Amino acid sequence: MTGQESLWDWFKLLAGFSGKHNQALAEVKSDARTSGGVSAGSPEVLVLDVSGSMLEDDYKPTRLDGAKTAGCAFLRKLQEVRPESLAAAVSFGDRGRTVCKPLRVGDGLAHLEAKIRGLKYDGATNMASGLKLARELISKCPRSGGGRIVVLTDGHANKGGDPEPVAEKLKRQGIQLDIIGIGGSPSDVNERQLRRMASVVDNERRYWFIGNVPELVKKFEALALREVK
Predict the structure, then answer these.
(1) Which terminus has fewer CB within 10 Å in the chain: N or C?
(2) Which tens digits make up the pLDDT trace of 71-82?
(3) Residue closest to 148 by CA, chosen among 161, 160, 137
(4) Rounded to the nearest 5°, which phi and psi values hold at 50?
């Protein structure tokens, strides 16, 4: 074997090792993105009002029970259509609280539902705090898009400052904001403000008022079917 042939064989060996090494490294990085309940998809955060007025019984048995039912329906539908999606939940009353940190819904549905079913009412309506907490949860997730926050509320923000600037910041960061008002009538909520806060997607303002539990469940299931880019 000549020196030139030996040198060429050495280069082929080196190239083969490099290719296998790069492939293995790519596989490790891919596994890291999807292991431990984390995926690269856009996270979905439910932000649920648990203020005192959520105990009103125009949603039988209460508005809060209706919110729990709808939230769990959203998660079940999400598991059905996109089980790799990350989902989390936040509540807001006197302040925002993390109900459940982001989990891959395909693995964590039972835990997510149990946390939502365990929600208790909590005084005032500090929506700004709930939105800020949702943003923090999204910021810690690897994602291909900006994520989405789905807000359910039955009233007017009356603690923690104006939630509208927080909503504007979220939208500037590429986070979609879907908002649902509930209650006996649209006058129960600050519809003007909620409309301004909601995202506009394909010329559609992402705000709705829903007056009963069956329609609320249908809307939450429909929201879960729409993938956020």
Answers:
(1) N
(2) 999 999 999 999
(3) 137
(4) -125, 25
